[in-house]
Amino acid sequence: MNFQNFPRWMVLGALVFVLSSAASVQAEKPFDPPLAPIKVVLDTDIAEDIDDILVAAFAVSAVEFEVLAITVVDGGVEARSRVARKVAMLYGHPEIPVAQGYSRSMPLTDQRYPGHTGGVRYGEVATDELELPPGSALKADQLIAKLADEHPGEVHLLTVGSMSNVGHLLVRYPESARKLKSIITNGGRFVSKDDQSIGWNLRYDPIAAAIAQRSEVPWILLSETTSRYASPRREDVEKLEEAGLPTTELLSDSIRWWRTNKTDATSLPHVSDLNVFAFLLGMVEVKKGNMYLEIGPKGKLPGFRIEEDAEGKILYGNMIPQQKAEALREYMMECLLKVPERHRAAR
Questions:
Q1: Rounded to whole angstroms, how far apart are CA atoms 225 and 12?
Q2: Is residue 219 situated within a structural domain?
């Protein structure tokens, strides 16, 4: 089209309209978009609970993040790997490497875990390797170390499962681990000084958590309540189940199996693990403090508390304000309902 044939005022008016429209769309996001995609590795016990699948899908489809890898941890890591690869593939990123991590907590000897536990029971949404991209040949800690070496000072390691992979990384590859920009963990409940409890992700491997606390890598510990107001509503779940997209069956089956198998499943999915991404988007206020962890005999819940300290070793954050969290939920839903570029091109 030759714009010289149009009056100048019309061309300028159209340009102003386009720019203002783009600005208004950008302004709808509840955060200031980063100047460049944020490099992350997602370390997850995906398929244990519903939020790991939802936030993994969000991460690979949100333009604000560059997911360099997904690493899986705890129990049936082979089946967890299949679920992670299926999420990445269906959301248009089969190239994302997925590495199996450690099936048992430190210092136990790692071994193959054939059992089934958890809400999605690992493999019920990805029962075999059929049509899946291959997994990484590297162990989880090896892959994280490699990426830290390749992108020094740029990679955030997001831990939303047991911290076993993190513990092994810090012990086996300390030089590479120091090149991480941060470790960000969904790790407990600390609403106030008198309302605190250790989270499952620290409880599963308290030794690894203690190693992270003492490492030289900046550690941000986020409360599981951070994303409380960002969880999908009933109408959001219906949209996911009725969207008719290449991803619809995956999400619908995941929610169904979670409701069926998880003994403490609620009527609607939660997105506790969304807090690590909310932090990177500047939506979570943090304070300096220290974490105190007391590891007792087997079967005894580790003692845990967070104390504010201006000279503290870690950063810790609490809840996103309700209005911001609800806006983040809308953006998450937009990403979950997005038709991936690869699928759009195939239509």
A1: 48
A2: yes
